[in-house]
């Protein structure tokens, strides 16, 4: 059991809208649509990564720009049709977007798109072509004013000798990030550019190398993104503070900290997908979706209110995903959805204030209580 203590006499400012999600309200080619529930919950921010699985990966670079030999300056080199439709459905919920520039995770033995692009500067120009289309009306595009552009996802995630998200070296990723971030900011300084969707801030050597590269090469870093999957609530406090401290230490005190993938998970990623583990697998994901996962979601949303986290995105919002605890496969809301909707209602209440809290979870009951503190607004 997790103990949560609310200190009614200690006020910590207004309730913050940290109940963002990953991916939009439609799946199965828009056959299943939970837009009305997104609106009722007031989902504030949708990050686009691995969308609409198991259909086409609508926001990936190779989906939009399928032939890398083509000219990024030529509108005919792009196919925006599927991505246009997907982004339209997201924006119709009223949410803002974090657009992940890169590729989706590849679980297949053969990897197709996770290797570094052959030409980093050209890849950056493709990214700018996408931005021009959605923000500047280029190529029969739109003026959506998408602010957040995230470069890649989990390049620090090795599985044995194979990385599911990045097939190059760490140094190659740092260079790709720097090249693209500089090009995007030069094209439109008003945009917020960041990355890298860290598997965990515990992969310290990768994070140190990345932040040092950005500092030494003056690569823009408007936000730093990182992830948590687990069952220990104390991680939200310790890892968010560590991320903030490291950003400050490397000179990025103005960079926002985005926990843009998180969920309850009490399994072992190394073994859960093995043959004959199907009953273990079912148990893990059913707990994510039932009252256990919902209780964790409620506690995490409360705790994050007073942590140095500027934006957060639960994984996942689309109703077909294994990791979605908000809806079942039919689009029916689960208990975790009601927690998010209640937070939205509280945040929308005039003069709503939050109270300081302390949280202790069973995985670290021997540890001292973590008293939450608020980071001043950016």
TrEMBL record:
GO molecular function (one): hydrolase activity, hydrolyzing O-glycosyl compounds
Region described as Disordered: 344-378
Keywords, in A-Z order: Glycosidase, Hydrolase
Biased composition range(s): Polar residues: 369-378
Highest taxon listed in the record's lineage: Bacteria
Domain Glycosyl hydrolases family 39 N-terminal catalytic: 68-243
InterPro entries: GH (IPR017853), GH39_cat (IPR049166), Glycosyl_Hydrolase_39 (IPR051923)
Family: Belongs to the glycosyl hydrolase 39 family.
Protein known as: Glycosyl hydrolases family 39 N-terminal catalytic domain-containing protein
Organism per entry: Paenibacillus ginsengarvi
């Amino acid at each position: 059991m997790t103990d949560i203590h609310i200190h009614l006499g200690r006020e910590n400012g207004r309730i913050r809208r940290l109940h963002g999600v990953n991916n939009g309200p439609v799946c199965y080619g828009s056959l299943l649509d939970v837009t009305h529930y997104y609106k009722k919950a007031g989902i504030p921010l949708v990050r686009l990564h691995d969308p609409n699985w198991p259909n086409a990966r609508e926001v990936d670079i190779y989906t939009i720009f399928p032939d890398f030999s083509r000219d990024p300056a030529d509108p005919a080199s792009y196919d925006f049709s599927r991505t246009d439709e997907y982004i339209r459905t997201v924006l119709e919920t009223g949410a803002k977007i974090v657009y992940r520039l890169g590729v989706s995770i590849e679980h297949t033995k053969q990897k197709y798109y996770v290797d570094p692009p052959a030409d980093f500067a050209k890849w950056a120009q493709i990214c700018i072509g996408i931005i021009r289309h959605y923000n500047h009306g280029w190529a029969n595009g739109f003026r959506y004013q998408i602010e957040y552009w995230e470069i890649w996802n989990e390049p620090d995630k090795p599985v044995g000798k194979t990385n599911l998200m990045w097939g190059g070296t760490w140094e190659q990723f740092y260079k790709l990030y720097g090249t693209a971030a500089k090009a995007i900011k030069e094209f439109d300084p008003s945009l917020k550019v960041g990355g890298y969707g860290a598997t965990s801030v515990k992969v310290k050597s990768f994070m140190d190398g990345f932040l040092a590269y950005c500092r030494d090469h003056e690569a823009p870093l408007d936000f730093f993104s990182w992830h948590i999957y687990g069952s220990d609530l104390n991680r939200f406090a310790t890892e968010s503070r560590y991320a903030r401290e490291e950003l400050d230490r490397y000179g990025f005190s103005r960079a926002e900290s985005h926990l843009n993938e998180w969920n309850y998970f009490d399994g072992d990623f190394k073994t859960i997908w093995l043959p004959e583990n199907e009953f273990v697998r079912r148990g893990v994901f059913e707990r994510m979706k039932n009252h256990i996962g919902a209780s964790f979601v409620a506690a995490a949303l409360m705790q994050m209110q007073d942590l140095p986290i500027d934006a957060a995105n639960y994984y996942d919002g689309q109703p077909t995903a294994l990791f979605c605890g908000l809806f079942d496969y039919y689009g029916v809301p689960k208990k975790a959805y009601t927690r998010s909707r209640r937070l939205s209602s509280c945040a929308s209440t005039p003069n709503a204030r939050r109270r300081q809290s302390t949280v202790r979870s069973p995985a670290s009951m021997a540890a001292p209580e973590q008293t939450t503190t608020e980071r001043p607004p950016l």
